[in-house]
Amino acid sequence: MRARHFFEGALVAVLFTSTCTGPRAAFPPTPSAHVRPQCGSWGVVDSPSSQGDGLQSVDVVAPNDAWAVGHRTGETPGPWIVRLDPSGWRTMQYPRDGGVPDGVSALSDLDVWMVGERILHYDGRGWVVSRPPAPASDWGVSVSGVAALATGDVWAVGTSIRQEGTTRALVVHWNGTKWTMIETPATTSEWSSELSSVSARSPRDVWAVGIRSSVEPGVGDSTLAMHWDGSRWSVVPTPDVGAGWFYDVATFGKSGAWAVGTGAHGAIIERWEGSAWRVTLDSRRPADLHGVTAMSPTDAWAVGGDVALHWDGRVWTPIETPVQGAWLLDVAASARDVWAVGLRPPRGGGGSLAEHYC
What we know:
Layout: E1 29-30, E2 43-44, E3 54-62, E4 65-72, E5 78-85, E6 88-92, E7 101-108, E8 111-116, E9 119-122, E10 127-130, E11 140-150, E12 153-161, E13 167-174, E14 179-181, H1 185-188, E15 192-202, E16 205-213, E17 221-228, E18 233-235, E19 245-252, E20 256-263, E21 266-272, E22 277-283, E23 291-296, E24 299-304, E25 307-311, E26 316-319, E27 327-333, E28 338-343, E29 352-357
Antiparallel strand pairs: 1-6, 2-29, 3-4, 4-5, 5-6, 7-8, 8-9, 9-10, 11-12, 12-13, 13-14, 15-16, 16-17, 17-18, 19-20, 20-21, 21-22, 23-24, 24-25, 25-26, 27-28, 28-29
């Protein structure tokens, strides 16, 4: 998954250019609160937190088995990894050279990928840290989304900064041995672009989404969707929703995909139906949607602000969440339960937020 979201006043991106591999480091988790499922509705589950902490990306392996990343600004400021096991959410000590994390994709407890300023891989014993590759002519990169199909087949996307200050989409691939930049239409285009998220169904079916900006005066930003067919990346047209940005993407079924973000009038949800993207939601509340996950063609969730929306195969329906004023940044699911993460509202003391639905 993804996500590709920055905490207001909390995360600062420091960009790097070269590629290297750091030493392996193994850290024991520290215990936290126990899980208290609230089935049939969204419920808050205690997680290790203090004021200013926040979680921004989550991925679920199985019930009571998930990973989340974020940032702490309270008593122990810095990058943050938490892991869910049967005893609850537990803080994992973060590698010293791991940079700021932005996205997570977990294949199993022994195969977890995280991206941000660095690319991190956990194999059950410790973390291996590497720097993402970057175009030689550019001065920095930031990776925001990651999708793991297998240990030797991982996609990561983000942004590369040109010398003149404009941006272009970055796509890199792990083949089990090394990370390689993959050229896309956005790589060589004059228009600026950024990728927020990536979702992979198979080695021949991968979607990446974000934003593109025209170099022509008076032409605003628009949503960007690109598809990998096993041999090349191509830009796929999306409906005109005004100044828009896709924040997250999720594949489902044999060929379907959801993309969520923001448009001129508020939150947008678009669906890929095998031949074209189609708008299924254009709503003023919430202002945007930051996360989406899909278990089947008739079961998907999207979150943004303090709103959770559920797709039942016909319509998107708002489902009440327990913390008004929260900022939900990502959502992920197993076959039996759904997790959403983000930040509590400042007026309530702030801190990280983990919500559960089963």
